[in-house]
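On clarity, I found the account of how folds are encoded harder to follow than it need be. For illustration, here is how one protein appears when written out as sequence plus structure tokens:

:::
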Amino acid sequence: MHHGLHHFQWLEIIARQAHHWAMPRLVHFVGFRDDRYWNAVRVFGPPDMIHTAWDRYAADDVAPGDCVVFATGEWNQEPRSFTVEAARSRKDGAAGRPAPNL
């Protein structure tokens, strides 16, 4: 199945309209884990930034005029309040495992 293909088509229209913006536009891919990544690359080109999840940190990386491409979900979804990494750290802490050193 081609999940989210209609999102790509809709966002491609926005991307074409964005060419008149003065600031350089970055392309952000969010949540891609399968062959949909390559479908998005064909439509939007390679991403400038890849985010594993749509959280506050990812949303803060997006500037006006940037193009955000989601692997799943609606185009206007609200970002999560915490990161996937923070959730893993909380889970590991609750299980008694030390947090990884970064």
